Structures are given as structure tokens and as C-alpha cells.
Amino acid sequence: MRAVPDPRCGRKTKHDHAEVLVCLVAGFLAGRTTIRRILKWCRRNLAELRRHIPLKNGIASPSTVCRMLSGIDEELFALEFMEWAGEIASTKGTHLAIDGKALRAAMEKVKDFRAPMVMNALDVATGLVVAQMPLKDKDCEITAIPQLLGLLDIKGSTVTTDAVGTQTEVMEQILRQEGHFVLMVKKNQPQSYGEITKYLGELSEDRRKMKEDKGYRPRHPEMQEKYEEVCYHERNRDRMEHRWYGVCTEGSILTRTQKEWPFIRTVGRARQVRIPLERDSDGNDITPDVETFLAKGSRRSPKPSMDGEAGKDIQETGMISDLLLTAERMGKIKRAHWAVENRLHHVLDDSFREDRSPAKKSKNNLALLRKFAYNILRLAMLAGECSQIMTEAMDDFHDTPALMRKYVFSGIKSFY
Q1: How much is the pTM?
Q2: Helix (H), strand (E) at residue 327
Q3: CB-neighbour burial class of residue 388 (10 A; exposed 0-12, middle 13-18, buried 19+)
Q4: Could you please report the per-residue DSSP string of 263-278?
Q5: Which residues pair with 247 in a beta bridge?
Q6: Half-sphere exposure of 2 (CA within 13 A, CB side)
Q7: Distance between CA atoms of 323 and 107, rounded to whole angstroms?
Q8: What are the residue ranges spanned by the domains of the chain?
Q9: Which of 84, 115, 284, 338 has minimal Cβ neighbours within 10 Å of its Cβ?
Q10: Which is nearest to 314 in space by CA: 301, 332, 325, 327?
């Protein structure tokens, strides 16, 4: 925190800016999610905090803290965060999931009422955030992803993004940095999406008919040797999930590979059907099978729809990669990508109350402070020193001064 420049005039400061930032992180770790609650917690624990930092003039007021956070250079602070995260865990040879997140409560304070966003990069294996970049709105994601990647060492890493990141510039940036990518193709790329659903749909249909009839002649016999598929069926919470993955290790089925994307080696298709569980009055399971659900729906979901957007009963997504991937491997990478939503964005909104924070000028710096706390909690979870549930881990830090002392004031060991 000392490396972050203090934006205030030196003659008028009573509170050390680095100490204030550390106190804010400690407050987030203890489960306090607003500046006022954090500062109140710090005053109650002033004696313990003074064992590690001077705090000569006590705890700063909320107005002082807000002015300081609003003045800190967001880009410099983000770079310091990335340097700190890089000292803890390497971004080389890992799976990095990149996705944007809206700061919804700040939307009402913006002129055009468009939710400001931050771009996050998550190390899927550890669940640690390795980078953050502020965005004005969702439209900026396309240009921000290459900028963010340029700040990271991604040699040997596999980068995944949502369909908005499936851009030639993004792919070329990843390849220049000796990384790899697995990107999603949805209806924002109509030509490529249409080709993927057409050709892989025909390959899948022909594969099924060839099993039923040994004399059947497929439409693309040369492609059948390079095609494979896998399917999974499992119960997840209150629904049955059926997932199909098919891949073809022949990039030429896409028109754009002839000029723009010559580096594409694997083209895939992921299809998912979610069926809500149903029981009759006697408690017997009457959940329909896939064929019945697709044809008629169910009582809980009478009109299943097919759309690329999350939250629908039926989803179909195209995928492309510069790697030679099996259907099983591509399916695992796709599922792992959504750790950025389940393990990060949901936790920030649910445990840290980020979507309820109305801060405007200090929103991005507050988001970074939350990620300092988030990473520390993840590290303690990985070490098995606190609960694996985020809110309970916060309780552990609140109730156990030794945890705060070890992870905030004594330095953190690297995961290299």
C-alpha cells in the first residue's frame, strides 16, 4: 500500500494513506462491507491494529477516507494490485478466465445511467484475482481485453472469455504473448456461429445414423475422422443438466479461418439443456426426459427456449481454439471458465455487497480493496486455515486475530 501515491496535500494530512488502506482491507476481511462499518470496526479494534501499524491519530473519518479514495490514481493502484498478485501466484501456464462485471449501484449516479464496469482476470486453479481494469460500460470490453492481457505474463496459459472477447485482435494478442485461447462464439458472430451449428450438427447427426446403420454414408466423411463428441447427465441443485460437447479438429469448416483466423485448430459446439426437477403429490420424481422436455416443456418451464444468453433452459454455444482439444477437454475448459462468475462475481455481490455500493468517484478503488480482501480470504482457504464458505471465513478473520496478523501484517508466501 505504501507504493500507492498519496493524492492529498502533505501539509493537511493527519492520517497515513497506507495505514488507511490497510485498515479498509482488514475491515473487509472482518465482514464489514461499507466504509462506515469498516471504520467503526477499526475503532473497536484500535488496540489490536496498533500492535502492527502506528495509527498515531487514530482512525480517519468517513469523509476523509472517501476523499482519499476518490483521489487515488486508479491505473497506478490497479498496477500495484497486479504486482502484488503476481508475487503471490504466477499467471504462466494456467487457465485465466476474463470477464466484465457491472457495478450496478453506481449506475444511478452516472449521466447516461449505464452501469460502469470492471474487467477481472481470474486464475481458475486457485480462484485468485490477478488483475482488474476499470471500464466505462460493457461496450469497452472489446478494446480493454487486449490491454489487460498486455499487462500479464500469459506464456503457456489458456485464456478464456465470453463471446464479446471473440475478436481477431484478442486472439492475435494472446498468440503474440505465446498463450493459447478457448473462446466462445455466439450470435454476435452470426456467420461463424451459423457455420458451427450447421457443420457440427450434421457431423453429430451423421455419427448417430452411422451407429444405427453401418451402410449409412455421412455428408462429410473426411471430417468424421476428426470429429468426436461426449455427453454428461447430472443432477445439479434443483434441476437435471444434460450437456453435449462436440469438436472437430479441422478449422477450415469456418470461412473466417481462410483469411482472418488461420490459427484456429479446433472448432467445437456446446449444448446444454436444464430441466427443473418435478415431483407429484406423493413425492415421486416426474421430471420429464430430454426429448419430452424439448417437445412439450414441463409444468415448471412450459416453453423451453433456445438462446445463447445465460439463464435459459436451452443454450447452444460455439467454441474455437488454437489448441488441438478433445471434446472432454473443451467441455472442462468451458465449465471452468464460469468460475469467474460463480467464485468471484457472485461472491463479490453476495458476501461483499459490491452491487449495493453507491460509490461513484471511488468505485474502482473500492473494488480493488475488495479484491485484496477476497484474495487473502482465498489464500487462507487454500491453506485450510479458515472455513471454505466466504462469509464464514470472514467470521474467522474477525474472531481470530492470529489470522489477521499472519495474512495482513506478516506478509504472504508465494504459490510459485
Answers
A1: 0.90
A2: helix 327-337
A3: exposed
A4: T--EEEEEEEEEEE--
A5: 228, 268
A6: 1
A7: 39
A8: 10-72+383-409, 190-320
A9: 284
A10: 301
